[in-house]
Write a sequence for this structure.
């Protein structure tokens, strides 16, 4: 049927049938209710929709009352990326922690099952996970600890186990970010990553977890572990000239690997596509042309309107057909049917009480996992006394857009344990990611006047002055050569503090700004201790190459609440199950 023979009602439902918008607040807005009644495929929850599990369960019930077939999806990976527990941090350590667990991939099955129960109890239909990216680039600004590991086999085993766990609780899963986001050095939220590597390498590295999840072997042969797959806004020249999310060759490759369910795009309002297409509406049309079935959109209702209008216009001009859109809608309806049947078989109840109980169970499991994974490596860690007032410096220089913030759960856990702790920078708000109006001025030692302490060289020089226990005014350049620090005019050089110094890192890659600042602090405070929230694998290379063998490092494997609490226990001198010979703590408490 051509566009002119398709009635407006049919076109409206067909267009709505490929859209997955977000929305503001904890109540169903009028525009969303109207769209749901007119065939909207689903919605994506953000943290602003899910302040607590009770509110989430109530909101889901309201949406499903309006449209029983509406797909409610959420990014709830655990660890650094959480929507249901965005305020206080995830109860479940993320993928890197699961991949590092000493007991094998059965822990990922248990974690997936526990998370699935919570999602089912809050009325959520589809988890936008697991992450099946293989982190082959340590300086990856967006994946990092969100991945299960650095080898295709580890990622495949843990990712498949996690997916099976979630599905056993009656929830659908969406593997991401096809064909792989692990080799990138650019965050697709803000720019277009390019992975210019041969297709043969992609097949033996990045594609392996997807291929094994879609066509598992053994007793699960013929039964895909995934309900949907999300494509990445990453350009692979070996596949074609456009990012995978709008590249027909990427879609064909995914179908060749055996995926017959919905293909979901990453959010179309991300920077990678905006730079390419110029508008979300054009990105929506190009994604459908490339073979996508569901289009993720952000919070602003204008994104829904723009995408809806652009798709409708594409149908009216013959660029797209109603039949093409209905093919996508049919795939989504098949997913809905499968999830409803799965949930009925699993028998989980939905509601506030069930969700509260499921969250408590998840928290208990998460604490056990974190205790087994978070550990100390490197130099001698002197436990912090209960009366200590540590200085805490966040050296991370890049905003974690996937997590929605530069997560401060480690700082929160430290200040809860040591109320006198001083945190630098203060209550950071970057790009509107957190409440507040920029970095808060904090107390400094410059003539008693407040100084804005950001992660710039001026602020670092002030900190070096304050924290120099030994009144040392030297730091190191990138080559490791000692040189005099250039302190701001008016700085009180003799002001010093003798409290413990804890620094938080994520990507102290040699040559990076984060690394340079770590070297400067290490030069004047060789007693500092690090809480490292990034990849656990490169810890020896990143910290052991510092002069003197480097500091004691609490390897947190992420910034979730469970990770942060376990990190605090290590700072207190409580030994984790992995510490063993890597832990060189003393029985003396540090003031």
């Amino acid at each position: 049927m051509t566009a002119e023979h398709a009635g407006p009602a049919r076109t409206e439902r067909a267009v709505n049938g490929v859209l997955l918008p977000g929305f503001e607040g904890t109540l169903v807005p009028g525009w969303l209710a109207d769209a749901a009644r007119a065939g909207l495929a689903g919605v994506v929850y953000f943290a602003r929709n899910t302040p607590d599990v009770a509110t989430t369960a109530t909101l889901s019930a309201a949406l499903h009352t309006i449209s029983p077939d509406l797909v409610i999806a959420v990014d709830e990976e655990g660890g650094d990326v959480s929507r249901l527990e965005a305020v206080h941090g995830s109860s479940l350590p993320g993928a890197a922690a699961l991949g590092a667990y000493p007991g094998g991939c059965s822990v990922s099955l248990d974690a997936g099952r526990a998370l699935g129960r919570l999602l089912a109890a809050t009325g959520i239909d589809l988890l936008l996970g697991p992450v099946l990216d293989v982190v082959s680039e340590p300086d990856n600004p967006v994946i990092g600890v969100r991945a299960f590991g650095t080898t295709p086999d580890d990622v495949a085993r843990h990712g498949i186990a996690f997916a099976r766990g979630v599905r056993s609780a009656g929830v659908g899963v969406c593997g991401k970010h096809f064909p792989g986001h692990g080799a990138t050095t650019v965050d697709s939220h803000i720019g277009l990553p390019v992975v210019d590597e041969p297709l043969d390498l992609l097949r033996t590295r990045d594609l392996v977890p997807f291929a094994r999840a879609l066509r598992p072997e053994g007793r699960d042969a013929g039964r895909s572990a995934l309900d949907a797959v999300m494509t990445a806004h990453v350009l692979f020249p070996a596949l074609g000239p456009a990012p995978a999310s709008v590249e027909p060759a990427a879609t064909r490759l995914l179908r060749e690997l055996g995926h017959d369910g919905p293909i979901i795009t990453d959010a179309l309002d991300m920077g990678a596509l905006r730079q390419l297409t110029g508008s979300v509406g054009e990105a929506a049309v190009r994604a459908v042309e490339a073979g996508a079935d569901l289009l993720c959109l952000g919070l602003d209702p204008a994104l829904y309107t723009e995408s809806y209008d652009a798709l409708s216009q594409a149908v009216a001009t013959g660029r797209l057909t109603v039949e093409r859109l209905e093919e996508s809608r049919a795939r989504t309806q098949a997913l809905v049917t499968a999830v409803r049947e799965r949930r009925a078989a699993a028998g989980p109840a939905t509601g506030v009480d069930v969700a509260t109980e499921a969250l408590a169970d998840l928290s208990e499991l998460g604490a056990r996992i974190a205790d087994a994974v978070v550990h100390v490596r490197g130099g001698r860690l002197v436990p912090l006394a209960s009366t200590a007032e540590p200085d805490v410096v966040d050296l991370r220089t890049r905003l974690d857009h996937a997590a929605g913030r530069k997560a401060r759960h480690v700082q929160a856990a430290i200040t809860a344990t040591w109320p006198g702790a001083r945190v630098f920078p203060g209550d950071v708000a970057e790009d509107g990611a957190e409440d507040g109006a920029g970095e808060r001025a904090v107390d400094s030692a410059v003539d008693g006047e407040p100084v804005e302490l950001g992660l710039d060289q001026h602020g670092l020089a002030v900190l070096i002055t304050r924290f120099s226990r030994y009144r040392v005014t030297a730091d190191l350049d990138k080559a490791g050569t000692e040189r005099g620090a250039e302190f701001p005019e008016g700085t009180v050089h003799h002001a010093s503090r003798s409290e413990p110094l804890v620094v938080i890192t994520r990507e102290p890659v040699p040559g990076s700004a984060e690394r340079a600042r770590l070297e400067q602090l290490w030069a004047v405070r060789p007693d500092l201790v690090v809480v490292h929230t990034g990849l656990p694998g490169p810890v020896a290379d990143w910290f052991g190459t510092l002069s003197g063998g480097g500091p004691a490092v609490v390897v947190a494997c992420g910034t979730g609440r469970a990770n942060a609490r376990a990190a605090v226990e290590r700072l207190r001198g409580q030994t984790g199950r992995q510490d063993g010979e890597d832990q060189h703590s003393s029985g003396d408490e540090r003031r």
Residues 1-5, 428-453, 470-496, 580-591 have pLDDT under 50 and may be disordered.
